[in-house]
Design a protein that fits this description.
Largest sheet: 5 strands, antiparallel
Shape: globular
Helix content: 10-25%
Number of strands: 8
Number of helices: 1
Distance between the termini: 63 Å
Number of domains: 1
Radius of gyration: 19 Å
CATH class: Mainly Beta
Strand content: 35-45%
Length: 136
Amino acid sequence: MTILNYFYIFFLTLLVEKSAQSEQWITYNENENFLISYKLKRCNDIKNGFDFNVYLIKLTNKTGKTLVVDFVLGDPLNPRQREEDKVIVILGKRESKEGTCWGYDNLSLTHSSNMTQKKSIPKEFKLSSINFVEIK
């Protein structure tokens, strides 16, 4: 093998490691019943002009019972907080649900937009009023 081949293999290994690290979920809130975690992801759809950095949220039910988890996206002290920012999710026994780039599931929070030339101010990941109810 030539030195160029070794360099190529080393470079690919570094890329794979970097990609795996950026895909890891960060724990935000955990108790004996559920786990809330998040990760930052770039959601880019050039065809439709969509380019955002989004926090994807993952909820995991750690129990053998159905749970209803509710929370508010963002900071409750913010006077512009809207009722639409309240999220309610039903989790079956030991079920996990993950947010997507397209946000149909309400398990995502916009971090910043890359669409305009103006610099956008990134939002900090914050959830508030986290509650859960067990369904028997």
